[in-house]
UniProtKB/TrEMBL annotation:
This is SnoaL-like protein. It holds the Pfam family SnoaL_2. Residues 6-98 form the SnoaL-like domain.
Length: 117
């Protein structure tokens, strides 16, 4: 699981559209400050390029065999000062099926626990 999520971070941080598409399910469920819901792999790849987000993993909190919360330092082109966030990752068939970004570890762990029930 960690290997897939590490590859996901590499694809996002490099803006590699094709690699990002290959690493996510169709659809992938996303959650962030601007919305939530299922999107296609192409829409996901467009978002990573358009947003310019960079996510540096800092700490991993496994929830179950398919779910982990990763604390990350996030930066954007117009906001280079790192902001700590936490993302709930759910995997399915070796791909990222959900990337649910929350503003802090506590809310991400709460969401991950609810999803694991």
């Amino acid at each position: 699981m960690e290997d897939v999520i590490a590859q996901w971070h590499e694809a996002v941080n490099s803006g590699d559209r094709q690699r990002a598409i290959a690493l996510v399910t169709d659809p992938i469920v996303v959650l962030g400050p601007k919305g939530a819901g299922p999107i296609t792999p192409d829409q996901f790849a467009e978002w990573i390029v358009r947003s310019g987000i960079k996510l540096v993993p800092r700490d991993w909190h496994p929830v179950d065999e398919h779910c982990v919360v990763v604390e990350e330092d996030a930066t954007w082109p117009d906001n280079p000062e790192p902001t700590r966030v936490a993302t709930v990752f759910r995997l399915s068939d070796g791909k990222v099926a959900a990337a649910l970004r929350k503003p802090d570890l506590a809310s991400a762990l709460e969401l991950a626990t609810e999803l694991s029930r």
